[in-house]
Design goal:
Blueprint lengths: L8 E5 L4 H12 L3 E6 L2 H11 L3 E5 L5 H15 L4 E4 L14 H27 L4 E6 L12 H24 L3 E8 L5 H10 L3 H11 L8 H12 L10 E4 L6
Length: 254
């Protein structure tokens, strides 16, 4: 076992499947203790069980302030706190500006943006009182690349990016040993990606080929490829990096 996360405790949201699950497994392989959360309770508990006694799991609605407070309180009680936060939980649902309603906008914003604010804001007292800490927020190529069917998603992810940069500046000027960074993926092969393809209608393979063609490298990312970037930013190898964004998008945003 390598040890890039040895001695660290990480809270990862959206850890039941896809990218969050890969981050959890990658961190575990590098020696971290893990607090895994997801609204998919059975799945996230299964991920923690597969890792062993270095991982615990909680049911967690990331858009709920009360749920965040409960998860953080229980994390402190069980593990004494944590020094790494990965805000990964998100949804991706299409809805163009003419045909989607305000309920769609609010749901997308609350899960994709408000949740990141809540995680950062409520975790700050825990992170600032420990040793060096790291926050890695997951953005999207659609934060900077317009998509005709995804205005709510794009706006939320753009908000995550600016909030992260503001927090990085704040923590540095306040003298807190907390680094705040972003990973900006393109399309990733996840269950959420499959749901996006299904929502477009038509033949799945045809929709998938269109997604591949949008990426100059001619393919989309594996979850491990994005998890590796998150691992780097969370580790001490990135000790002088804050307010940065790593695009793991196969050239999609060029």
């Amino acid at each position: 076992m390598s040890a890039r996360m040895q001695g660290k405790t990480a809270l990862v949201t959206g850890a039941a499947e896809g990218l969050g699950r890969s981050v959890a497994l990658r961190f575990a392989a590098e020696g971290a203790r893990l607090i895994l959360t997801d609204i998919q309770t059975e799945k996230v508990h299964a991920v923690a069980a597969g890792i062993g006694d270095r991982a615990i799991a909680f049911a967690h609605d990331v858009s709920s302030e009360a749920d965040w407070k409960r998860v953080l309180s229980e994390s402190v009680a069980r593990f004494g706190g944590f020094d790494t936060l990965v805000n990964n939980a998100a949804i991706s649902e299409k809805g163009d500006i003419e045909h989607s309603g305000f309920a769609h906008w609010e749901r997308t914003r609350s899960i994709n943006l408000d949740s990141v604010f809540l995680g950062c804001n409520l975790s700050l007292p825990i992170l600032k009182n420990g040793g060096p800490a790291s926050i890695v927020n997951v953005s999207s190529a659609l934060a900077v690349k317009a998509h005709v069917e995804m205005p709510a998603y794009s706006a939320a992810k753009a908000g995550v990016e600016q909030m992260t940069r503001s927090m990085a500046l704040y923590c540095a000027r306040a003298g807190y040993s907390i680094r705040c960074n972003l990973v900006r993926p393109g399309s990733i092969m996840t269950p959420m990606q499959e749901r996006v393809l299904a929502a477009r209608g038509g033949a799945r393979d045809e929709q998938f080929q269109k997604t591949l063609a949008a990426h100059p490298m001619g393919r989309i990312a594996s979850t491990d490829e994005v998890a590796n970037a998150i691992l780097f930013l969370a580790s001490d190898e990135a000790s002088f990096i804050t307010g940065a964004c790593i695009a793991v998008d196969g050239g999609l945003t060029l």
